[in-house]
Amino acid sequence: MSLAPAIAGLPDSHPVRRFVAAMTLFAHDVEHGRLPGPYSDARAAVFARCRLIASARFRAHRHLDDLRLARVFGVPVGQIAAKRQDLGLPPARPTRWRAGCQRHLGR
User: Fold this and answer.
1) Of the candidates 25, 17, 67, 74, which has an alpha carbon nearest to the alpha carbon of residue 46?
2) Which of 36, 80, 89, 106 is 20 to 30 Å from 22 by CA-CA measure?
3) How far is CA 17 from CA 35, 72, 74, 82, 84, in A?
């Protein structure tokens, strides 16, 4: 499995590198017939979330904000909202900081 130079240059523990590496595992398994095709980035992302974010552990910590959950699971923060959606969970409630900013911005 080879990663693009920009991804390969990241530390092994970097959330983007971990996520992209999991997506490439999906591509490899589809290519070799271990998983049914066709490959798509959307299917690979679901595979990566399943592999990197254990559903039971995620449900147990779902009260945490997305940034904290991303740190807990070592994934890009954008994948946390997607995991909530995968599991049929509601979006995270805004943090106090975010709610305060929204109030000041008129949102």
Assistant:
1) 25
2) 89
3) 22, 16, 10, 18, 21
CB of 94 closer than 8 Å to CB of 102: yes
pTM of the full predicted structure?
A: 0.83
Cα 50 to Cα 75, 87, 95, 103: the distances in Å are 12, 10, 26, 35
* Residue that is written with structure tokens 């740190």 in the block: 71
- Euclidean distance between CA atoms 11 and 36, whole angstroms: 31
Q: If pLDDT is split at 50, 70 and 90, which confidence band does 39 have?
A: very high
Q: What is the pLDDT of residue 102?
A: 58
Cβ distance 55 to 87 under 8 Å? yes
The CA distance from 9 to 17, in Å, is: 9
